Amino acid sequence: MLTNNSLKDIEVYKIEISAAGMRRCHNNEAVSSILPLEILAKDVFCDLNLYPEKEYDMLIKKAAEFYKISADCVIATNGSDEAIDLIIRTFCNNGDKIAVLEPTFSMYEKYARISGIDIAKFSLNANFEIDLGDFCSFLERNMPKIAFIPNPLAPSGGLTKNSDIIGIIEKFPDIVFVIDEAYIEFCGQDSLIYGVKLWKNLIITRTFSKFYGLAGIRLGFCFTSQFCDIMKVKSPYNVNSISCRVGINFFNNISDIVISKRYNGNIIAKGDMRDFLLQFDEVEKIYDSFTNFLFVKLGSSGKDFGQKLQVEYGMVIKTFSGKFANFVRICV
Question: Which domain of life is it from (predicted)?
Fold first, then answer.
């Protein structure tokens, strides 16, 4: 066998391409970018013959100012997906394992398996929340090298209190806790970015793909006190010059007013989507969500419900298989 043995049971990530005119409710994308295109795209196509070292450094400086953290704790990445891969390759050795929630974002497990790292899965409770006592017992039994915790949770949309997360971080100083804050801007709870200076076993990942509506530029950030070690693993020029410049334009022009408008707009859109879904007999429960999507339990197959919404309403939604086959996730 010529390829890595770890790839034997790994499937290619399937990208669903929706037909023209369909409402894309499956990828948790924003309807539009948070700032006008003419602002974001200003001067982005100059000096494309050069590597983006100046642009990357400026992006880091602007991000550090925006997130109120020192620049030596900030790493820009090609989406937050790259940050996940970098963290696993930086901290895990052969024989280590990572801990993930179930259900959760699939890329934690995929990157671990590619690197030959074992997975320990912790099931969320009946309300798709973390039972803190059970989770601590799970960590004590498994002692993973890394624990990935999205907050807010994905795909269920629930929120874990920062105080609860801090308690776990302090109780297990030998476990690296990666708090994936992909949806944090939607929930109104403060970020834990400041904590990377206080707890060396805390890493925060962020993305521009969700709240800011910039999925197309594939820009994310990793906040950590373990900067030097992760930089040893990171490829040079991992964020291209166009994405760097769009990011810089974002930081130069974003305002609290614009952020507040998007936050409030999401609350309204989420309420409208909830009202729309409650008209269907198939819907048994809609879980509280602190994100831009709703997690829905059905009395029937999620794939059948997805097909119904696609045919009758022109909507493409996220469906699941296995034990979660009667659940769907719908972006507002």
Answer: Bacteria
